[in-house]
Amino acid sequence: MEWGPLTGKDAEALAELWAAIEAEDRTGEVYSVDDVAEHISSHLVDLDQGTLAARDGDRIVAFGYLPVRQTADDLHMMRLSGGVHPAYRRRGLGRRIVDWSVQAAPGLSEQAFPGVPLEVHIDVHDGRPDVAALVEGAGFTAVRSFARMERSLSGDLPAVRPPDGLSIAAWLPELDEGARHVRNESFRDHWGSVRHTPESWRALISGSRNFRPESSFVALAGGRPVGVLITHFFEAASARRGERQAWIQIIGTLREWRGKGVASTLIGHALAAFGRQGYDSAGLGVDAHNPTGAVSVYSRAGFEITRRTTTYALPIKPA
């Protein structure tokens, strides 16, 4: 087994590993070669210091991916993602990756955000008690629960009743900065969320290869954005599912417009558009403890929880 960082040429091998993991674990996380290439070329990851891979010949059989966040105020939360090929489990590869992340994170964090406290986070899918035991054994503690919610676009869709003074516009380039502002302001009180910079917004949201402008919408009041719904489409995941699923990447409403039906209006408008655009279903991720009552909003719109994950955290003192 050879250990070393990922390189820009590893997209195909890493996509093959992801496919093997998903086939075994049914996580719903499916990535094409192009999706993986976008991840490993991100401006937020240092391939030499922020990735680790185990290779058996030409195959990548385990990896860890540890980018910095785009911003950090009182706390820098670095999220480790990765996995081990099902045929190579129970050999200590996963523990080596977790231990590496704990060692690598302080240096990466200090370079990006000097003096800011650090936590490393790991998301564990329900149904993987082995992974939960691994991260707990490394000192991580469960801190948050998240859910994947989905609904079919067949049958009745929620009615769209915009509140007075509100209109819904399709995303346009001239609305993009306003959409970013709404997202940043509306997620200020969301656990684990950090502000998007213009660069990270373009790279991860409106400039991603998966962004669908025709399926993304902005709620306007007096011409000013007050709500936003951003949609991505993951072709490889939809092919694996056997249906086209529109993924609602972001829903956000300015605090002063909460409780007035902005999110419900955006969702209803988007679901109707998805149906016309040939999608079969819609999905989204939500914090199960979201303080805005988002789970209830999505449930009323016909979404049901299909998967759950738990986030584990480990505070790390600076060296």
Mind explaining what this structure looks like?
By secondary structure, this protein is α+β, with helices and mostly antiparallel strands. It folds into two domains: 2-139, Gcn5-related N-acetyltransferase (GNAT) (Aminopeptidase, 3-Layer(aba) Sandwich), CATH 3.40.630; 149-307, Gcn5-related N-acetyltransferase (GNAT) (Aminopeptidase). Helix content is 33%, strand content 29%. The protein has helices spanning 11-25, 33-40, 47-50, 93-112, 129-137, 176-186, 198-206, 235-241, 262-276, 294-300, and strands spanning 2-4, 51-56, 59-65, 76-84, 118-125, 141-152, 166-170, 217-221, 224-233, 245-253, 281-287, 304-316. Strands 1-2-3-4-5-12-6-11-10-9-8-7 form a twelve-stranded mixed β-sheet. Helix 1 (11-25) crosses helix 2 (33-40). The longest helix has 20 residues, at 93-112.
Give the gist of this structure.
This protein is of the alpha+beta class and 319 residues long. Helices cover 33% and strands 29% of the residues. It has a twelve-stranded mixed beta sheet.
Throw out a few tags for this protein.
single chain, 319 residues, twelve-stranded mixed sheet, 10 helices, 29% strand, Aminopeptidase, 2 domains, alpha+beta
Helix/strand layout:
Blueprint: E1 2-4, H1 11-25, H2 33-40, H3 47-50, E2 51-56, E3 59-65, E4 76-84, H4 93-112, E5 118-125, H5 129-137, E6 141-152, E7 166-170, H6 176-186, H7 198-206, E8 217-221, E9 224-233, H8 235-241, E10 245-253, H9 262-276, E11 281-287, H10 294-300, E12 304-316
Parallel strand pairs: 4-5, 10-11
Antiparallel strand pairs: 1-2, 2-3, 3-4, 5-12, 6-11, 6-12, 7-8, 8-9, 9-10
Helix pairs in contact: 1-2
